[in-house]
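ok posting inputs for the zinc ion job
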Amino acid sequence: MSTPVCTHLESISVTELPAEIAGCEECLKIGSPWVHLRMCMSCGKIGCCDSSPNRHARSHAGEVGHPIARSAQPREDWSWCFVDEVAFVVEAG
Ligand SMILES: [Zn+2]
Ligand SMILES: [Zn+2]
Ligand SMILES: [Zn+2]
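and the output
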C-alpha cells in the first residue's frame, strides 16, 4: 500500500464508482464536452478533469470543500487531493 501524504482521508465516504455514469453532471446541464471524469469521494458527484474545458471536479472541490476526487475512468483507481495536490490509491475496503 502506498503511503498517502494527504491529511484529508477522513473526508472520504464514497469509494466505489456508480454502476452507470452518464458523464459530468455539470457539463450535461450546459451541453459542454469533457475529457475525463472524476468522482468526488465525499459526496459521489461526478465532475470533469483538469484537461476538460470546465474543470468541474476542481471547481466542486473548491466550492463545497470536498478535497478528494478519484478517477472515474475504467481501470483507474487513483485518487487526487486538490488541497495537498497529491495522488494516491485508497485501499478498497
Ligand atoms: Zn488532502
Ligand atoms: Zn464538467
Ligand atoms: Zn463532493
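notes: The mean pLDDT is 94. The pocket of zinc ion (ligand 1) is lined by residues 6-8, 67, 81, 83-84 (CB under 6 Å).
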